[in-house]
Automatic annotation (TrEMBL):
Gene3D superfamilies per the UniProt record, alphabetical: 3.40.50.2300, Hypothetical protein af1432
Superkingdom of source: Bacteria
Signal peptide, first to last residue: none
InterPro entries assigned: CheY-like_superfamily, Cyclic_di-GMP/3'3'-cGAMP_PDE, Sig_transdc_resp-reg_receiver
Lineage: Bacteria, Pseudomonadati, Pseudomonadota, Alphaproteobacteria, Hyphomicrobiales
Protein's name in the database: HD domain-containing phosphohydrolase
Organism in which the protein naturally occurs: Roseibium porphyridii
C-alpha cells in the first residue's frame, strides 16, 4: 500500500510563492495553494490532517493571523507558519499570539532556508501527532475505567454504551469518518449526565411514561451537566461540546433552546441524538423495524440522511422475520392491523390487559396508551406485522 504523503497548505496570493512551494516540495509532499483565506479554509475542512499550514501576513479575506487561528480549530495537529515582509514587532506579536504560529519567516526566503523551515515544521507536526495519539490512548483507558466504576453504581444509565458504540462505529465507517476517537469518547460518556438525574425520572422515560414539564426539563438539561463535568479535562473540550448538543433536534427542538439547527449541529451530536433515541425505542435484541418506526414518527428531530443511512446499516444484521413479520414494539409504534403475539400484561402485577391473537384497532391502541399512562403496560409488545400494511380493521366501538 502506498504511504500517504504529508500535505502542505499554502495561503498566499503571490504566484512566485505558490510556484516556489510546488517546485521545492511537490515531489515528496502534497502541496495545495490558495490565494485567499476562505478557499483555503474550505479545503482544510476536507483535509483536516494537513501537516503544515502556511500563510502570508496580509492574506486577502480575514488576514493571515485570523486565518491561522481558524485553521487551528480545523487542523489542530498542523504546524502553522507565517510568511511576511512585515518586520515590525507588532506583526510578529500578532502572528504568534493571535495566529498561534509555530514559526515566522521573512519574505522572500532563500530556498535552503525555506526547506529547513518546512523540515522543522514537519517534525513538529509529527511530534504533535505522536503526543496526541499517546494522550488519546491514555485518556481512553482512563475514561473506560471511569465508566466501569460508575456502571457499578448506576448500571441502568451505562448499559447502553457497548451497544451504541458498535452502532456508532458502523455508521462512522459508512460515513467515511477516518477519526472516530471523539465519537467513541462521546458515546462512552453520554450517560454521565443521566447518572446524576433522579432515577424515577429515568424510569418513567425508559418506560415511555409521560413526564411532567419539570421532569422533562430536568431530563433535557442532562447534557449541560455532562459538559460542566468534562469541560476542564484536556482533549475532551470538543467532546463536551458534542455532548452538550446531543439533545438538540435537527429541527431546532430540544436542548439548548437557542442552539444550532440542521447541519450546523456537529455530526457527532446528530449521531448521538439518533442512536440514543433509537436505543430507547428498541427491544433488548436490538433495533428492528418497529424501533425505526418509533423514531420516524418524530423524523424532523433527526438528520434525514443519517436516519436513512442508519436504517440501511443497522438493519443488515436483523433476521428477516424481525424485519417484516414479528416486531417488538413500544405502544407508540403500534399500528392498526397488528396482531398480538403475546398477552399484553401490566407492568408490575402482570395482570391481563389484552389477550394474544387480538387484532389491534385505533381504539384498542388508544386504550393501551391510556392504560399505560395510569397503571403501566409491559413493553416491548410483540406483534405480527405483515409486509404490506393491512388496512385498519373496522372498529366496532
Amino acid at each position: 500500500m502506498e504511504k500517504t504523503r504529508d500535505l502542505i497548505v499554502v495561503a498566499d496570493p503571490d504566484p512566485n510563492v505558490q510556484s516556489g512551494f510546488q517546485k521545492l516540495f511537490g515531489g515528496q509532499m502534497e502541496v495545495a495553494c490558495f490565494s485567499d483565506s476562505d478557499s483555503a479554509l474550505i479545503f482544510l475542512k476536507q483535509q483536516p490532517s494537513a501537516a503544515i499550514v502556511c500563510s502570508c501576513f496580509n492574506l486577502p479575506g480575514r488576514g493571515g493571523s485570523a486565518f491561522l487561528r481558524a485553521s487551528e480549530i480545523i487542523a489542530p495537529m498542523a504546524a502553522r507558519v507565517m510568511l511576511t515582509r512585515e518586520r515590525s514587532a507588532e506583526a510578529v506579536k500578532q502572528a504568534l499570539n493571535e495566529g498561534h504560529a509555530f514559526m515566522f519567516l521573512d519574505k522572500p526566503s532563500q530556498p535552503a532556508d525555506l526547506v529547513a523551515a518546512m523540515e522543522t515544521a514537519l517534525a513538529h507536526h509529527r511530534q504533535l501527532f505522536k503526543d496526541r495519539a499517546l494522550l488519546e490512548r491514555t485518556l481512553a483507558g482512563s475514561v473506560k475505567l471511569l465508566i466501569d466504576m460508575m456502571a457499578l453504581f448506576h448500571p441502568e444509565a451505562f448499559r447502553r454504551t457497548g451497544v451504541v458504540r458498535k452502532q456508532a462505529l458502523k455508521l462512522a465507517k459508512a460515513l467515511g469518518m477516518k477519526k472516530t476517537w471523539e465519537l467513541e469518547m462521546a458515546v462512552m460518556l453520554s450517560p454521565l449526565g443521566e447518572a446524576l438525574l433522579p432515577k424515577q425520572v429515568l424510569a418513567r422515560y425508559r418506560a415511555a411514561r409521560s413526564l411532567t414539564e419539570q421532569e422533562r426539563d430536568v431530563l433535557d438539561k442532562s447534557p449541560a451537566q455532562t459538559q460542566e463535568l468534562l469541560k476542564n479535562i484536556p482533549q475532551l473540550e470538543r467532546v463536551s461540546d458534542y455532548l452538550y448538543l446531543s439533545a438538540r433536534g435537527y429541527d431546532g427542538s430540544g436542548f439548548p433552546k437557542d442552539g444550532p439547527t440542521g447541519s450546523d449541529i456537529p455530526q457527532i451530536s446528530r449521531i448521538l441524538k439518533l442512536l440514543t433515541d433509537l436505543w430507547y425505542a428498541s427491544p433488548e435484541a436490538g433495533p428492528d423495524a418497529a424501533a425505526f418506526e418509533a423514531v420516524t414518527i418524530n423524523r424532523r428531530k433527526y438528520d434525514p440522511k443519517l436516519l436513512e443511512l442508519a436504517k440501511n446499516v443497522l438493519m443488515d444484521d436483523v433476521p428477516e422475520e424481525r424485519k417484516k413479520h414479528v416486531a417488538e414494539c413500544h405502544i407508540r409504534s403500534l399500528r392498526p392491523g397488528d396482531i398480538l403475539v403475546d398477552d399484553a400484561l401490566t407492568e408490575s402485577s402482570h395482570e391481563l390487559v389484552l389477550s394474544r391473537g387480538h387484532t389491534l384497532t385505533p381504539t384498542t391502541i388508544r386504550r393501551l396508551e391510556h392504560f399505560h399512562q395510569t397503571t403501566g403496560v409491559r413493553q416491548p409488545i410483540r406483534v405480527e406485522r405483515h409486509e404490506v400494511v393491512q388496512k385498519a380493521v373496522p372498529d366496532p366501538a
